[in-house]
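User: Predict the full complex structure for these chains.
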Amino acid sequence: MLAAAVAELPALPLHTAGKYVAGAYIVLFAIVLIYVAIMAIRLGRIEQELGELLELSERPSAPPVGSQGGDVPQPESTLA
Amino acid sequence: MYGKGLRALSISTVVAITVALGLVFFYAPLEAEQGFLQKIFYVHVPLAIIALCGFVLGGLLAIQHLRTRDPRWDMRSYVVIHMSLIFAVATLITGSIWAKGSWGHWWVWSEPTLVSFLIVFLLYATYQPLRFAIEDPERQARYASVFAITAGAFVPMNFIAVRLSTAYLHPRVLGSTSNLPAPMAFTFLVSLLAFALLFATLCKYELTAKHTRAQVRALRRRLAGDAFEGPRRQRSAAPALGHHATIATARASSRTGV
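Assistant: Here is the predicted structure of the two-chain assembly.
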């Protein structure tokens, strides 16, 4: 049914202007895709950090990280 | 906090963009002069309008930051300007492609709309270097807000100046949808709505990510037991939660003598 509906639609006039139109739309969606990919990478980092924190919280007898002069995680920029 | 309603907004955006694309390619008629090339209009112009509105909105949010001194307004202003810059890049690229197809050149320096948009873009391209060149978080937020307000005021002035200029080579759209045939005007408005939703969704997405990251950092500080370290180099736009969580942990630690 969907195929029949698509077949009813008028054909796109993809002549010489087609490559420019396609280029413009592809660029736009590529930009959005790159942005979403960057955000996905950041989300992955947050997930990893949460995993580490969960592990840390499940060790009741362990001394706090950094109490022995170890590497204390520094606050980072929110805007990074 | 920021994630509330994100799913509904994302679904609305996907639906709106799908409908807009359907209208652009299967409903809006071909323009008499440019033919199929004019389809770029439905993506280029909404992107430009939303980018410029975003810059102005960034200025308004910065005013709110200066009034209240609440860092969350600064963060919103930052995110809106950041997103507007991305939309502005997309505007410049799609505009160049349209110019190449229509005029045979990637860029026309004699065209005031193109050049004025480039000036606005370059102005805002200095926002982030300026912001992150300042170490002190308070000063950073204040200077960034002043910049956002000044530049935000420049955007409509620039727009009006271009409108008043005599060289009208660029097609005029905003405020003249009545000149378009009804199907074209309708498609354009749906497209504008779709891109406005995309802008709102991406802003909300980024705000949610930043807020979540701040929460994770606050939790890490609490678990790491360095609450007394405080928000040493915490950036100005960090959500209040991270700061308050740190203070609360510090107070709790001081009571227990840890």
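Chain B touches chain A through 53 residues (CB under 8 Å).
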